[in-house]
Amino acid sequence: MTPFDRAYSAMIDSSYQPYLRREVTTNGLTNAFFNGVICWYLIKEKSDLTWWGDHSFVGDILATALILPWIVAMIVIPLQRSKVRKGKIQPWHCDTSSPRILQLLDSFPQSLWLNGLYFGLLGMLVVAPLTLLLLWLAGANLFTPMEYAIFKGLWAGCLAAITVVPMLFVGLRADAAPAQASQA
Prior knowledge:
Elements: H1 3-9, H2 17-43, E1 49-50, H3 57-85, H4 100-106, H5 112-138, E2 142-143, H6 145-171, H7 176-183
Antiparallel strand pairs: 1-2
Helix pairs in contact: 2-6, 3-5, 3-6, 3-7, 5-6
């Protein structure tokens, strides 16, 4: 049993686990690669990055933590709604016996834009400060462009992998299928 399976087995129906594992892996690896490459391309000829100043990594982490989950939500949620509508995957159902986190996700609005905003704010207000705290505790005061590109790629991949699970559940909600079908 993988760590993913152990973490979610008590919370998620086992029939969803292979699907979720594939989505987490795909989103994590794709975002790690593209964010690392884009970061390297943009900063390769610049000076080292520090906490503050002209070449600060703090602003970049805050901005990425807001924008990346928003973009991923704007892609993932409609794709999941489409898959439910077309019958490619079964919607998930939430009730009062479901874990509290799933009940919270079930209460998210149907608005794609609001969901994107919620996930972006979650990234910026929770993930970014935790990341910066860990960097501070580790004594990371300076990154060369190559070090930062590698760090950012790995960090963005982890951010995407972690945030895609709740996005999947927002998109796979049972109440999303009828609303989408009536608009078609």
